[in-house]
Design a protein that fits this description.
Mn(2+) binds at residues 101, 103, 136, 162, 359. It holds the Pfam family M20_dimer. One of its GO terms (molecular function) is metal ion binding. Its cofactor is Mn(2+). By secondary structure, the protein is of the alpha/beta class. It has two domains: 3-180 and 297-384, Aminopeptidase; 183-295, 2-Layer Sandwich (Alpha-Beta Plaits), CATH 3.30.70.360. The protein contains eleven helices and 17 strands. The strands form four sheets. It has an eight-stranded mixed sheet, sandwiched between helices. A four-stranded antiparallel sheet has the order 10-12-8-13. Strands 14-7-16 form a three-stranded mixed sheet. Strand 3 (70-76), helix 3 and strand 4 (125-132) form a beta-alpha-beta unit. The radius of gyration is 24 Å and the shape is elongated.
Length: 388
């Protein structure tokens, strides 16, 4: 049986598996059922299994031939704290939790690749199948690195894949350089002097200062960055006051910053602090800025991006796009790329209509793309670990 026939044969079972995972979503670092399902399936294939990396992560090890070359393939397993609004048979059975980003599909496609490669070990070296917890904002990738991922499983490079609604099924997007942005957070506390709402002259208004700060922060990107440097500064929360007739003594702003380089992150952080100081001085309040770095930018390395584009382009029925703009969304695969060369690609999930977009309560992974994802992983292993 050829690889193509094996993938076709596996498709119905993989679809059922994907829907089972979708029906039983688990949040960051709580992926116990999913991790055990992954581990047992790998063991049934004869793949060496290591549990518990980064908390609930699983690593499968498949060796063929005698080469010492090794690569890593990563899928994420966690779900999101969203109440699902679908009504199909595999809808989430856990209230307030759903696979709204397709990690159920990512896990399934990598398991499918492990199954195909275990039957057709047409490569020379070691493939590490990395099933990662807690991608959704909790930094599971960093946790796996801290837990010795690259020390225990020495790989030359690492690769990731994410479904992309709006990109037609059968298409892949590969970026040479930035593909996803950084994700920093800030909290700004404004302290004034409270007063009666009818006697504002007796206090210093934290709300007025906060409003001025929100407005001035809109100039960070438009007036302090090079126009060719893409970035986003968004104030997403404004908390102040509890009564109609009281000017509160404190207000708090929260928000996110996105960028594609550390230099831009540095510039934005310094500018937000400077603006805070200026607003404080002009409004007679005190301003305290707490700026926290989160996920770094996800930046593909050139050689690996070129290889991945070639691999995706070689798949029957597939098409590769190399000119799509990167996304201001963030991805903790970036932590791996701080240590190893690699590439993170997008696989088309089909039309993003009717609410079928990432992090939407009506989202569902497109099972029709499973064969494309499995074939991509299999061919990537064969290209990077070729037989002599």
């Amino acid at each position: 049986m050829s690889v193509t026939e094996k993938i076709r044969q596996c498709h119905p079972a993989l679809t059922a598996l994907r829907r089972d995972i979708h029906a039983h979503p688990e949040l960051a670092f709580e992926e116990h059922r999913t991790a055990e399902l992954v581990a047992r399936r790998l063991e049934a294939l004869g793949v060496e299994v290591h549990r518990g990396l980064g908390g609930t992560g699983v690593v499968g090890v498949l060796k063929a031939g005698r080469s010492l070359r090794a690569i890593g393939l990563r899928a994420d397993m966690d779900a999101l704290p969203i109440q699902e609004r679908n009504d199909f048979a595999h809808v989430s059975q856990h209230a307030g939790c759903m696979h709204a980003c397709g990690h159920d599909g990512h896990t399934t496609m990598l398991l499918g690749a492990a199954e195909v490669l275990s039957v057709h070990p047409d490569f020379d070296g070691t493939a590490y199948f990395i099933f990662q917890p807690a991608e959704e904002g909790e930094g599971g990738a960093d946790a796996m690195v801290d837990d010795g991922l690259f020390d225990r499983f020495p790989m030359a490079s690492i690769f990731g894949m994410h479904n992309w609604p709006g990109l037609p099924a059968g298409q892949f997007a590969v970026h040479d350089g930035p593909v996803m942005a950084s994700a920093d957070r800030f909290d700004i506390e404004i302290r004034g002097q409270g007063a009666h709402g009818a006697m504002p002259h007796l206090g210093t208004d934290s709300i007025i200062a906060g409003a001025a700060l929100v407005q001035t922060l809109q100039t960070v990107v438009s007036r302090t960055l090079d126009p060719l440097d893409s970035a986003v500064v968004s104030v997403t929360q404004f908390h102040a006051g509890e009564a109609y007739n009281v000017i509160p003594d404190r207000a708090k702003l929260c928000g996110t910053v996105r960028a594609f380089s550390a230099a831009v992150q540095d510039r934005i952080e310094a500018t937000i602090s400077r603006i805070g100081e200026g607003v404080a001085a002009s409004h007679g309040v005190s301003v305290e800025v707490d700026y926290r770095r989160g996920y770094p930018p996800t930046i593909n390395t050139a050689d690996e991006a070129a290889l991945c584009a070639a691999v995706a382009g070689s798949l029957p029925g597939a098409r590769v796009l190399t000119d799509l703009p990167p996304s201001m969304g963030a991805e903790d695969f970036a932590f791996y790329l701080r240590h190893k060369p690699g590439c993170y690609v997008w696989i088309g999930n089909g039309p993003g209509e009717g609410g079928c977009t990432l992090h939407n309560p009506h989202y569902d992974f497109n099972d029709a793309i499973i064969p494309f994802g499995v074939a991509y992983w299999v061919e990537l292993v064969r290209r990077l670990l070729p037989k002599a």
